[in-house]
Amino acid sequence: MDFRSLNRLNNLVNTLSGNFLPMTSKKTKLTVLFKIYSIIVWFIELVYLAACILGLFCVPREKALKDGTVNAVVSLEIITLIIYLHCRKRLLRGLIEKLNRLVEGNETLQDVTVNVVKPIEKSLTIYVIGSITAVIVWIALPLVEISRKNEFYYSDYRMPAVISKQPFSANIFIGGVVLEIIGGTYTIVRKIGLDFYTIHFILLMTAQYKYLRIKFATTFKREPQVLESSYNNVIKWSGDERTIKLEMKLLTSHYETVVE
């Protein structure tokens, strides 16, 4: 059990989105196939963002503010966060190594971690499917206009975008909608990938604190047995006290590792 195997959905979305954030404590290189895929994803994302930003200046202000501004801001936010996290790969791998080391060989912590992580997977899966479907349907809605007119403008897109000189034909309009669907889908998938990656870290840290709470409570409930010596009525403690002290030291060390 490790960071990667605890949440397969996180691993899948991280790959499909092209984020390729660290999933193990070891420094690994992407395969040629994944490098090509990453380049394609970045190319689509940048072309989509450029088209949408240009579209903001070519449509009425109300349309730009209503449909285009949020999309551009979210896209820029995603790109910024991805670049930032990739610049902090060493720190992320160090945190993953620390979490893997703590959970290794500790069955109680493993059970607690599974109980924290697994219940949320179904909800996250529904969230992924629902978000992607909603984005695709929302962007594709303008296609119904094809049967009503032959000329189209930038404002006819759900999100204003500059694809060709306006007015343009139905074929170019369809191509633009397809580009927006692909770009919008990758944007939401990359956003979901960042959210899942962060949520996974939070869940694992939550499991650590839950484990510590359980262990501290169990330790405090134990009472060392008192043995009375017949010599000078000296009171001695049984070996349970030493066991409790040892457990407290181990738990304190575990806590220091978590908050370090």
Which helices and strands occur, and which strands form pairs?
Layout: H1 8-16, H2 32-56, H3 61-87, H4 89-103, H5 107-117, H6 121-140, H7 170-221, E1 226-228, E2 235-237, H8 239-259
Antiparallel strand pairs: 1-2
Protein name: Odorant receptor
Transmembrane segments: 36-57, 124-147, 168-188, 194-212
Keywords: Membrane, Transmembrane, Transmembrane helix
Explain this structure.
By secondary structure, this protein is mostly helical. The chain has one domain (8-206). Helices cover 69% and strands 2% of the residues. The chain has helices spanning 8-16, 32-56, 61-87, 89-103, 107-117, 121-140, 170-221, 239-259; strands at residues 226-228, 235-237. A two-stranded antiparallel ribbon has the order 1-2. It is elongated and about 85 Å long. It comes from Heterotrigona itama. The chain crosses the membrane at residues 36-57, 124-147, 168-188, 194-212. Keywords: Membrane, Transmembrane, Transmembrane helix. This is Odorant receptor.
